[in-house]
Design brief:
The protein is an alpha+beta fold and about 220 residues long. The chain is built from four helices and 17 strands.
Length: about 220
C-alpha cells in the first residue's frame, strides 16, 4: 500500500494494512513525516526499487485496546484521558493482573516504540528504538513528584480501570470512545504488526531524530 500524506495518514493506513498483512510505503506530503520513508516527488524512484525487490521490511507492533465488546488498534498509542474536564481523574492500573498503582492525573498513555517519539515524548517519556519489543506506560500529568514512565515487555497486558470518573479513550489521536465510571480498558500487543518499507541509503533512526526532532545536536554559537 502506498500511503501519501503525513504521519497521521500513515497511522490510519497501518491499521488497515496490518490486518491484511500488506506492507506500507509512506510518502511524506505533510509536515513532520517522521514515519514516512520517501519525500513527495521521490515516489517514482521508490516505486521502481519496490518493484525490483530492492527494499527491506521493518516490523512495527500495534496495540489492541478492548472495552467490553469494542476493539480498537493503535500503531502509536492508546490514551485514556479526562477530555475537556478540569478535575483530575483516578485511574487504577494493573500489569499482567498485578496491581501497578493508582494515578490521580489527566490520564494514562500506553505507547509502542513507534509512538514513543510522538505524544509520549512531548510529555517527557523515553525514546524507544523501533527494534525494541516493548511498550511504555506513562501517567499523563500526574499530581505527584514521583510517578515516572515505565518500560514494559511487549508481552505485558495493561488494564486501566476508572473507579469513579468518566473519561475518553483515544487511539492514535483518531479513534475515540466515551468511557463511563467503572469502565475497564484492556491493552496489549497481541502480535498484530505492520511492515513498513525501508530502503538502503535512507535515513536511519538517529538521523531522523536529529533531522526531525533536533535530538543529539550540539550547542552552537550565536553567529552560526
Amino acid at each position: 500500500i502506498l500511503s501519501v500524506g503525513g504521519d497521521g495518514t500513515l497511522l490510519w493506513t497501518a491499521q488497515q494494512a496490518a490486518a491484511a498483512h500488506i506492507p506500507v510505503l509512506g510518502v511524506n506530503a505533510g509536515r513532520l513525516g517522521f514515519l514516512t520513508q520517501v519525500q513527495l516527488g521521490e515516489e517514482g524512484k521508490a516505486l521502481d526499487r519496490w518493484a525490483a525487490g530492492d527494499f527491506k521490511l521493518q516490523r512495527r507492533a500495534l496495540l489492541e485496546a478492548r472495552v467490553g465488546e469494542r476493539v480498537f488498534h493503535a500503531l502509536n498509542d492508546v490514551v485514556v484521558h479526562k477530555g475537556s474536564e478540569i478535575n483530575l481523574i483516578r485511574i487504577e492500573a494493573l500489569v499482567d493482573d498485578l496491581p501497578a498503582g493508582q494515578f490521580d492525573a489527566d490520564g494514562v498513555i500506553v505507547s509502542t516504540p513507534t509512538g514513543s517519539t510522538g505524544y509520549a515524548m512531548s510529555l517527557g517519556g523515553p525514546i524507544v528504538h523501533p527494534d525494541v519489543r516493548a511498550i511504555v506506560f506513562m501517567p499523563l500529568n500526574p499530581h505527584s513528584l514521583f510517578n515516572r514512565p515505565i518500560v514494559l515487555s511487549e508481552q505485558a497486558r495493561v488494564t486501566l480501570r476508572l473507579p469513579n470518573a468518566s473519561a475518553i479513550l483515544t487511539c492514535d489521536g483518531q479513534q475515540n470512545a466515551d468511557l463511563e465510571p467503572g469502565a475497564e480498558v484492556q491493552i496489549a500487543a497481541p502480535g498484530l504488526a505492520v511492515e513498513l518499507v525501508r530502503f538502503d541509503g535512507g535515513p536511519n533512526f538517529f538521523e531522523l531524530l536529529r533531522r526531525k526532532l533536533r535530538w543529539g545536536l550540539p550547542l552552537v554559537d550565536g553567529d552560526e
